Every structure is written in structure tokens, then in C-alpha cells.
């Protein structure tokens, strides 16, 4: 297919190849060559590169940015297929500006910095072709954990309000870490409101489940969204704490832990720590309230790091 000879289209494509953003440059190049996405996918496959039409569509809309090795190999091949200068698209992926504008996202921390199993989580995310930070930060999060009659982590329910800091965000990754010895094959993630369950990945040795929750709408930068989901576990031994890691500062967090009347702890306390190996700070005793046998913590503006509640059985 020969390139477009429209001077205005050619000038716009050249401008985008110089200054980006990546998704608009890719879209303009596809339009200039008149290649539909299924044809592009077929040409990539002929070179031994497997990229789905959905991923290509996400790339040209700015909903995703290719960053895995196979994806970057596909971008290099796209330069040849679309008859673009070598490195013209790959260079745009190094641009730190988010798609759709120059607004800065909140400073965040990786799973690896927050959780002792962070590397495992990142490994599970490989190949899912998702932004490293998900494109979301929390505005409000209410979480309820139920401890069963044997002291096991039975269920947890989350109600979240998030805000997008890039265009095109349409999903959230829920990470569940069971207690040592849990059976992740029996853990179930259920979408409640304004979302549905997508791909689910597990790591049995680490007790990790990563579930993709697909939104009912595609968000623009600055949009807020409310959704809820639950996790059924109950497969691990007696539990001694529940923690939540926060990649971004800000937003309210409420955690409630409710105990079965057959398994009441002798002491409960809240705590914070900056990382998985850091000492506990902000320790304060909590007393189970009334007939509900529950303790809770509320933080009106969380800091990056870890918050949790721990308890002793005897």
C-alpha cells in the first residue's frame, strides 16, 4: 500500500513522529498507509510476532503503551510495515509524558517496593500488556475482612473509588495474598458493581492471586470511578494479620476485621510500615466492638507504604 500523498496528512504524520504522543503517531501512520488492524496483525504474524488486534487497537487509542520486550519488537516491525523511519515510533515510547497530555501523575511505588512478593506479582503481570502503574490512584477504599471459626482469612470485600491519571483506563488489577499454605486454586474473585472479572493469574508457591476487573466504562484522565469486588479464600491456616499496600499517597482508607465468635483474639492492634522489612510504626491497640466482634482503622489521607491490623490468639 502506497503512503498517502495528501500534503496535510503527511505534514501531520511527520509532526507527530517528531513530537508524539506515540498513540496519535501510530494512528496517523495507519491512516496514511490505509492498513486495517487485522492486516497489520497478519503481517506481524508472518514475521513470527504475536500481537492481538485488541492490543493494536489499545495502542492506537492510547489505552495501553507497549513496554514488554515482545511488544517493543512488534513496534520495531510496525515501523517497517508502515514505512516509517527506523526508531521513529520506539523513540516516542521513551517520552515520559502520559498519553493525552502533560499532566503529572502522583508519585507511586512498585509492587516490589511494597510487598515481599512484589517480584512475583510483577512476573504474573508480564504478558498482560498493561501499564506498569495501572493508570489509577485511590480516592477512597473501604475494605471488610472476615476471619472464620478456625481463625482463617475467610473473605474480604472491597468498595473503591479511583481516579484515572491517564486516558483510556478501563480496568483494575486486584492482588490477593493468602496466608502461607493457602490453596490459590480454590480462591474465588467475584465482581460486584460496575465491573466484571477478566483474566485471573495465580502463583501457588507465593499464595498470590491477581485478578483483572474490567470496568463498564473507559475513563479519561481525571475521571473518578466506583466499583466493588470480593475474594473468597478460607483455604489457609490461622491468620495473624491483614495488610494493604499503597503505591500512591492520598485518599481515605477504612479497614474492618470481623472475627467469628468461636475464634476471638486476645489482642488487636493497628500499625503502619514503609516497606515489607521495615519496623512497625503508629502501633495502637484496638478493642473488638460489641456483638459484631470487629475492629477497624480509618486513615483520612494515606501515605505510600503499608497499613494493617494484627492480632494475637493466645
Description:
The protein has 314 residues and is an alpha+beta fold. Helices cover 24% and strands 34% of the residues. The protein has helices at residues 7-19, 22-33, 37-46, 53-61, 69-81, 88-92, 111-114, 118-125; strands at 136-147, 153-164, 169-177, 188-191, 195-203, 208-219, 224-232, 241-246, 252-259, 267-273, 281-286, 294-299, 305-312. α1 (7-19) runs antiparallel to α2. The longest helix has 13 residues, at 7-19. The chain is elongated. It starts with 6 loop residues before the first helix and ends with a strand.
From the structure above, extract its key features.
single chain; 314 residues; alpha+beta; 434 Repressor (Amino-terminal Domain); 2 domains; 6-stranded mixed sheet; 4-stranded antiparallel sheet; 24% helix
Strand order of the largest sheet: 4-7-2-1-9-12
CATH fold description of the largest domain: Immunoglobulin-like
Percent helix, as a range, is: 10-25%
Distance between the termini: 75 Å
Q: Structural class of the secondary elements?
A: alpha+beta
Radius of gyration: 23 Å
Any low-confidence stretches, pLDDT <50, length ≥5? 95-113
* Whole-number tally of structural domains: 2
Taken from the alpha-carbon principal axes, the silhouette is elongated
The first-level CATH class name of the largest domain: Mainly Beta
Order of helices and strands: HHHHHHHHEEEEEEEEEEEEE
Report the sheet-strand fraction.
25-35%
Mean pLDDT: 83
| Number of DSSP-assigned strands | 13
The number of helical runs is: 8
Amino acid at each position: 500500500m502506497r503512503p498517502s500523498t495528501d500534503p496535510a496528512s503527511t505534514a501531520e504524520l511527520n509532526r507527530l513522529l517528531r513530537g508524539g504522543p506515540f498513540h496519535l503517531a501510530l494512528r496517523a501512520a495507519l491512516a496514511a498507509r490505509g492498513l486495517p488492524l487485522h492486516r497489520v496483525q497478519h503481517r506481524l504474524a508472518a514475521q513470527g510476532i504475536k500481537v492481538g488486534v485488541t492490543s493494536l487497537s489499545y495502542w492506537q487509542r492510547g489505552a495501553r503503551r507497549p513496554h514488554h520486550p515482545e511488544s517493543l519488537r512488534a513496534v520495531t516491525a510496525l515501523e517497517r510495515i508502515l514505512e516509517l523511519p527506523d526508531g521513529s515510533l520506539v523513540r516516542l515510547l521513551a517520552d515520559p509524558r502520559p498519553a493525552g497530555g502533560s499532566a503529572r501523575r502522583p508519585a507511586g511505588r512498585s509492587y516490589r517496593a511494597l510487598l515481599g512478593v512484589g517480584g512475583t506479582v510483577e512476573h504474573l503481570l508480564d504478558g498482560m500488556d498493561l501499564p506498569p502503574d495501572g493508570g489509577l490512584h485511590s480516592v477512597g477504599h473501604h475494605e471488610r475482612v472476615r476471619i472464620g471459626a478456625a481463625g482463617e482469612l475467610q473473605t474480604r470485600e472491597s468498595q473503591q473509588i479511583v481516579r484515572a491519571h491517564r486516558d483510556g483506563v478501563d480496568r483494575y488489577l486486584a492482588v490477593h495474598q493468602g496466608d502461607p499454605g493457602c490453596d490459590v486454586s480454590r480462591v474465588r474473585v467475584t465482581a460486584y458493581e460496575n465491573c466484571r472479572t477478566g483474566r485471573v493469574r495465580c502463583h501457588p508457591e507465593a499464595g498470590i492471586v491477581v485478578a483483572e476487573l474490567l470496568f463498564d466504562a473507559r475513563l479519561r484522565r481525571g475521571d473518578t470511578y466506583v466499583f466493588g469486588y470480593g475474594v473468597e479464600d478460607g483455604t489457609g491456616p490461622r491468620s495473624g494479620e491483614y495488610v494493604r499496600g499503597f503505591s500512591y499517597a492520598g485518599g481515605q482508607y477504612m479497614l474492618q476485621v470481623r472475627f467469628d465468635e468461636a475464634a476471638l483474639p486476645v489482642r488487636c492492634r493497628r500499625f503502619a510500615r514503609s516497606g515489607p522489612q521495615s519496623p512497625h510504626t503508629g502501633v495502637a491497640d484496638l478493642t473488638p466492638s460489641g456483638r459484631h466482634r470487629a475492629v477497624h482503622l480509618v486513615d483520612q489521607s494515606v501515605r505510600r507504604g503499608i497499613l494493617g491490623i494484627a492480632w494475637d490468639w493466645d
